[in-house]
Design a protein that fits this description.
Length: 321
């Protein structure tokens, strides 16, 4: 069964935004929103540069279509006026797509007048975080956008820095509604600083979340070098471990070092394991070199000492030739 939309949460956030904007006293809620049937062709997408959520997968879209087929549109779309009789979708892009493929001509919508881009971003992210199973990149962008909005609104927003440290003050603003820890929020936001091919690999589970976080601290050019060498130029990609990613981050922080192909070759080279066959020595044949009653551990230690002296002398002899 498709996941249920938590529309109450998005409606509550939208009402809160409107109440704050209009100066309503705390606790006072606007009246019940009116549903308006809007023509399908009057609805347009949220601006692409502000919308970081990907369309539903074919499997998820089929689930939505089946739900709409059986039950209709259970949760109305949230929209805002876009001028000339058109409306911009804030929440409900996938519902619109499913309904359009089922030949719907109009959809139930709640129209939010006067909603700014920042207010719409908060509402859009709240809807997606509450109602969808998100990719790491989508979750990261939602957290990052929320923090950037709060920064523009003059609130504490330590998480928006490109170089995130351990001092987190605004994590509570996000963690309360997501159930994630401050560390998880920080890690997801870091992913948004990856170049697109590496971010796609994290989403596709071809690159670990922690590895992606470490690589996100590299400059763009360094990330491109890593991606080309480890993944793009070879039939069988190199598996980057957390240890390797941390070495790359440390290298990037050293002004005297650079991340190039030579370093990557050395870092990712497989270390050959030298295996020796078991060697057994008959103690009886060695006893002739030792006085009767010599303890076994003394015999073994003497052999080690003699071999060390032999090879040391051999090296000096070879060097003198």
């Amino acid at each position: 069964m498709p996941a249920a939309y938590n529309f109450e949460k998005i409606q509550e956030l939208a009402d809160q935004i409107i109440a704050e904007k209009t100066g309503a006293p705390p606790g006072q809620k606007p009246g019940q929103p009116e549903l308006t049937m809007l023509p399908m062709d009057s609805l347009e997408d949220f601006p692409e540069d502000l919308h970081k959520f990907r369309p539903a997968t074919p499997e998820r879209l089929e689930e939505l279509k089946e739900s709409v087929r059986e039950n209709g549109i259970l949760n109305p779309l949230l929209v805002r006026p876009a001028g000339e009789g058109r409306y911009q979708i804030i929440a409900g892009h996938n519902r619109r797509t499913a309904a359009r493929e089922l030949a719907y001509q109009a959809l139930p919508c709640i129209i939010k007048e006067g909603m700014t881009d920042d207010e719409a971003i908060l509402a859009k992210n709240a809807d997606n975080l509450a109602s969808r199973t998100l990719l790491p990149s989508e979750r990261g962008w939602a957290y990052r956008q929320d923090m950037e909005v709060r920064k523009r609104q003059g609130r504490r927003s330590d998480l928006t820095s490109c170089q995130l440290g351990t001092k987190l003050r605004s994590d509570e603003l996000v963690a309360q509604s997501t159930g994630n820890s401050a560390r998880q929020i920080q890690r997801y936001i870091r992913l948004t600083y990856l170049i697109p091919p590496l971010l796609d690999m994290v989403d596709g589970q071809k690159l670990g979340l922690i590895v992606g976080e470490q690589l996100s601290y590299l400059r763009r050019r360094s990330q491109e070098t890593v991606y080309a060498y480890c993944f793009q130029e070879r039939e069988k990609p190199i598996r980057l471990t957390e240890a390797m990613a941390k070495v790359l981050r440390e290298t990037e922080a050293d002004p005297d070092k650079i991340i190039d192909r030579e370093l990557l070759e050395e870092l990712t080279a497989k270390k050959a394991k030298v295996r020796f066959r078991s060697l057994k020595l008959e103690m009886a044949s060695l006893r002739s070199y030792f006085p009767v009653g010599t303890p076994e551990q003394v015999v073994v230690q003497t052999i080690h000492t003699a071999l060390a002296a032999y090879f040391e002398g051999k090296e000096e002899h070879d060097a003198a030739l």
